[in-house]
Amino acid sequence: MDSLLEKRNPAMTESDVLELEGFLPYRLNVLATLVSHSLARVYGERFGISIPEWRILATLGQFNEMTAREIGQHSRMHKTTVSRAVSTLEKRQLLARRPNDQDMREAFLAMTPSGQAIYAEIVPLARAFARDLTQDIRPEDLAVLDRVLAQLMGRLNASSMDRDEEA
User: Fold this and answer.
1) Which long-range contacts (CB under 8 A, 24 or more apart) does 84-93 make?
2) Do 73 and 59 touch, CB atoms closer than 8 A?
3) What is the C-alpha to C-alpha distance for residues 78 and 80, in angstroms, rounded to an integer?
4) C-alpha 7: how far from its chain's center?
5) Has this prediction a pTM greater than 0.90?
6) What are phi and psi for residue 107, nearest 5 degrees?
7) Per-residue model confidence (pLDDT) at position 166
8) What is the distance of C-alpha 131 from the center of its chain?
9) pLDDT by residue (tens digit) across 64-92?
């Protein structure tokens, strides 16, 4: 890290420089990536499930049946990512689709019994992972973290809705 100090842009003053490693959006992104990939190692090696595939199974485990569009909205995944993951899960017979009689362009997706079995095995692993990740954090600090994350997400969800209304 000391060698990086030597590489600083001499033309920039301290107040002109954005230190990426201290920038909250960057830190949140890195943390989310590290956590997501660490958890993916837990279920990926054992079940051959990718991160998007797990997010779809987790969403369906929570809500039972949804359209791909609804899954994408809930899990914040791009429709192309959802489509590819749904296709893979269908090929592995972990997911089934039922036509939507109201809109033939979309279908309702639900886990098959095989998908439900994998989901049932992953949930305790995911919960244990979360417990292990936070085991050295005091409960009151976790409560503060939860509250701050909810506030940040609420703020971003509200501002994203404002932008959607303007479009």
Assistant:
1) 84/52, 85/50, 85/52, 85/53, 85/55, 85/56, 86/56, 88/50, 88/53, 89/53, 89/56, 89/57, 89/115
2) no
3) 5
4) 35
5) no
6) -135, 160
7) 41
8) 18
9) 999 999 999 999 999 999 999 999 999 99
